[in-house]
Amino acid sequence: MFLKHIDLTTALRPSYLPDEVLLFVQDNVGLYEGKFKLPNQQNGQVYLTSHRICYVDKDEPRKYSAALNLKEVDRYEFYAGFLKSSAKITIVPKPLKRSTLHNRVVSNTGVNSRGSTPSPAPSDNAYTPPSGPPSMTAATWVCTICSFSNPVPSNFDPTTANAHTPLPPCLACGIKPTLSQVLKAAISTASNRPAATTNTSQSGISSQEISSTAAPQSSDLLTFDTRTGGGQGKPDAGVSFHCPRCTFSNHPSLLSCEMCGAPLLSQNIPSSISSSEYIRTQSPGPVKDSNSKTSQGGTDFAESVKISFRGGGEKIFYERLKSAMTQRKWLLQDAPPAPKSNRAMDDSSPGSPSTPVQKTKTAGIAGLEQLGLNMRKNNEILIGSAFEDLEALMASAKEVVALAERFAQQVNGASGDVTSKDNSILAESAHQLGLITTKDIVGGGSSESLYFSELARNLAEFLTDDSRGVLKRAGGILTLVELWAMFNRARGGVELVSPMDFEKAAQMWEGLKLPVRLRKFRSGVMVVQARDRTDDATIKSILAWLQDLHEFPPDRDVAWDWREFGRGVTAQEAAERFGWSLGVAEEELLMAEEHGALCREEGLEGLKFWKNYIGSTDPALLQKKEAQEQADALIQRLKETGLIG
Amino acid sequence: MATTTTSPPPQSQSQPSSPSFPFPREYFFPAFFTRQTNITIHHAQLTKWSALILAYARHHRLFRITISAAAESDLFFNRGIDRRLNPPDIREVLDFMRKDGRAEFLRPGEGNGAADASSSAAASGGDVVFLYWRKPEEWAALVEAFVEETAQKGSVLTVYELTEGENTRGTEFHGMDNQVLMKALNILVKRGKAQIFGSEDSLGVKFF
């Protein structure tokens, strides 16, 4: 099946693959398969990563969570929502048979490229685009007389245009433009696009231009066909973007509306209702269409999966998905090693030509120096080749990243003082902390609470991760401030979390049933500890420790009977003993005092804590004792009188 | 109660004349000398200190202490472990005992027993505390029992006779602090069991 079950972390987030990067999170989503709702997956969070789309169910996360790999995704479609139907994104898996698919893909693409025109089309094959702004009117020329932005005519081809090409007059004032003006506009628009798309769109232009209005579809499809299936993510030149605020049709390359200045989310999101006509499953009319399509699809490849966004966020999701599909990060996983990246220690790169030369045997300091020299040379080559062009950089991304990390560790190692260990650990954890939650990642539409809950989960993972052992190293308890500092340092100075947000997130642990909890001492100090650590357990361990001090003589002579009373301990000693931080140790001791297990002694040496030999006068306890004594006396008397044995 | 004490001079509280008072275990516990912040422990601490002070006073037959002087005595200053109870804390313990009826602060101008208010004014202000290891009522009962036993009802005794006289040797109130005795006698007066007359120096009591 397309959807696969996934493993979750302790914090109930998907556990990520190596190199996987979290891109977006949105809560309150449901899943459909084909046109049917999946009954158990109707309320959850969707995690978009560079490799996968993961669904984590809210009620039964371990049972119903699922994921699909982006590399198996053939295409995805956007549906903006209509009346009661919420916005959806349909994800269609790659088919088993390639040949049958082509037509479909092509036809879909064709429709999509024209999706912006609001016409109720009964079926997409019979659907003819309106003659209004055809797809190639992307370029505009500005009239020199009245400065009106005119569209460049669709049949205008900069490559073949000459002085005799008929040019339409300005739409506003009727003055004809000069050829150079229009030519410039057309060329500048074409060159503004990325290199890859420029070609296709230009070829699109030519094909479009050859085929007259009667049957633009087929030729257009063919054009798209030639550039193969993966191309959905690339911007289509033909789409004009409707401003969400004033509905003005903007040029696709604009980032903000020309009329009102509102930001335009994407050039490609078909934001108007027209797209819904095509995907929608719930309204009666178009269902037929999509029904027949999906059922037809069901015969030869897996059913599509729909993600229904009931809490908004679909647009950002769509955009991020688009970029993830374009970047195709999953390819990096099995990317070939960078050319000539043969390090002396790394023999994994096979068949590199220059290895034997460097493997000359040398010994002693000269050998070490030679080794270092070789390594530096290799690094140089690697970096040099990586930056030669963008293509190579992509290919050798893994090596470059590894190199950068090694450099970072070497820098840390060189500093050589006490903190170097911490630093390296932090650097390491920063690397492991690749899946950070940022406000940016989380769907902004719903509310802040999603961000906080994600941050809370993120923190819980950070704390409980065994490889990092943050909590374990701190003796199972950590002040919130320390954690905050550590967490932000691990983030490497970017996307820092504000203390307020941090506190709010920490307070959500309880509600989210995460394995850590936030505890507030009476002094107001907030600490973080594992859920299973209770005050009683802490007191027990402290008392056991104090009991041990009865056995072992103190370092120096003391005036009192240490066999009887042991000795007083300071917060400092407790901190050393349990691996707590000083603040935590102080709070824990005070907590134990609060419970009556310890008592204090203030002296020249500062505040010390002793086992409570003063005792307590808990009235309930005294009463109990008295009752016990009375009962004992009664039994004694009864025994004496021979009533009981 | 040990009654074999040789009569100590009434004002010499800080010089215990009798051999070793058996201090309780807590007295050797360093933290016992620090005021506890936990309410439960603090209460226990006050109770234990109060018991210690009373036992100590009973042992040494102390009827009143001067706080500043007592702070240096081995009651509040354990030289063995070099720990001491600070005067403010001593005051707190004594205040706790006062609420319990086991101590009384002697303040100038505060008319406790009207009869001896003038003499109490001579003591250092606010620093002197009566320790009631027996409450005045109990002392009154003891005196009454003594009078009954020795068949001296109706006769007149001087206060000096009661505390220093040959007849009272062997009773608990022999060598008793005058002011405390006067408090006890005043209780008897109120009950109509006795009558006090005479001048300041030579007070006489008649029992009925």
TrEMBL record, chain A:
<dbReference type="GO" id="GO:0008270">
    <property type="term" value="F:zinc ion binding"/>
</dbReference>
<keyword id="KW-0967">Endosome</keyword>
<dbReference type="InterPro" id="IPR036390">
    <property type="entry name" value="WH_DNA-bd_sf"/>
</dbReference>
<keyword id="KW-0862">Zinc</keyword>
<feature type="region of interest" description="Disordered">
    <location>
        <begin position="189"/>
        <end position="234"/>
    </location>
</feature>
<keyword id="KW-0479">Metal-binding</keyword>
<dbReference type="GO" id="GO:0043130">
    <property type="term" value="F:ubiquitin binding"/>
</dbReference>
<dbReference type="Pfam" id="PF04157">
    <property type="entry name" value="EAP30"/>
</dbReference>
<dbReference type="GO" id="GO:0032266">
    <property type="term" value="F:phosphatidylinositol-3-phosphate binding"/>
</dbReference>
<keyword id="KW-0653">Protein transport</keyword>
<dbReference type="GO" id="GO:0043328">
    <property type="term" value="P:protein transport to vacuole involved in ubiquitin-dependent protein catabolic process via the multivesicular body sorting pathway"/>
</dbReference>
<keyword id="KW-0863">Zinc-finger</keyword>
<comment type="similarity">
    <text>Belongs to the VPS36 family.</text>
</comment>
<dbReference type="InterPro" id="IPR037855">
    <property type="entry name" value="Vps36"/>
</dbReference>
<keyword id="KW-0175">Coiled coil</keyword>
<dbReference type="InterPro" id="IPR011993">
    <property type="entry name" value="PH-like_dom_sf"/>
</dbReference>
<comment type="function">
    <text>Component of the ESCRT-II complex (endosomal sorting complex required for transport II), which is required for multivesicular body (MVB) formation and sorting of endosomal cargo proteins into MVBs.</text>
</comment>
<feature type="region of interest" description="Disordered">
    <location>
        <begin position="106"/>
        <end position="132"/>
    </location>
</feature>
<dbReference type="InterPro" id="IPR001876">
    <property type="entry name" value="Znf_RanBP2"/>
</dbReference>
<comment type="subunit">
    <text>Component of the endosomal sorting complex required for transport II (ESCRT-II).</text>
</comment>
<feature type="compositionally biased region" description="Polar residues">
    <location>
        <begin position="349"/>
        <end position="361"/>
    </location>
</feature>
<feature type="compositionally biased region" description="Polar residues">
    <location>
        <begin position="106"/>
        <end position="118"/>
    </location>
</feature>
UniProtKB/TrEMBL annotation, chain B:
<dbReference type="GO" id="GO:0016236">
    <property type="term" value="P:macroautophagy"/>
</dbReference>
<keyword id="KW-0813">Transport</keyword>
<dbReference type="GO" id="GO:0000814">
    <property type="term" value="C:ESCRT II complex"/>
</dbReference>
<dbReference type="InterPro" id="IPR008570">
    <property type="entry name" value="ESCRT-II_cplx_Vps25-sub"/>
</dbReference>
<dbReference type="InterPro" id="IPR036388">
    <property type="entry name" value="WH-like_DNA-bd_sf"/>
</dbReference>
<feature type="region of interest" description="Disordered">
    <location>
        <begin position="1"/>
        <end position="21"/>
    </location>
</feature>
<protein>
    <recommendedName>
        <fullName>ESCRT-II complex subunit VPS25</fullName>
    </recommendedName>
</protein>
<comment type="similarity">
    <text>Belongs to the VPS25 family.</text>
</comment>
<dbReference type="GO" id="GO:0043328">
    <property type="term" value="P:protein transport to vacuole involved in ubiquitin-dependent protein catabolic process via the multivesicular body sorting pathway"/>
</dbReference>
<dbReference type="InterPro" id="IPR036390">
    <property type="entry name" value="WH_DNA-bd_sf"/>
</dbReference>
<dbReference type="GO" id="GO:0042803">
    <property type="term" value="F:protein homodimerization activity"/>
</dbReference>
<dbReference type="Pfam" id="PF05871">
    <property type="entry name" value="ESCRT-II"/>
</dbReference>
<keyword id="KW-0653">Protein transport</keyword>
<dbReference type="InterPro" id="IPR014041">
    <property type="entry name" value="ESCRT-II_cplx_Vps25-sub_N"/>
</dbReference>
<dbReference type="GO" id="GO:0005198">
    <property type="term" value="F:structural molecule activity"/>
</dbReference>
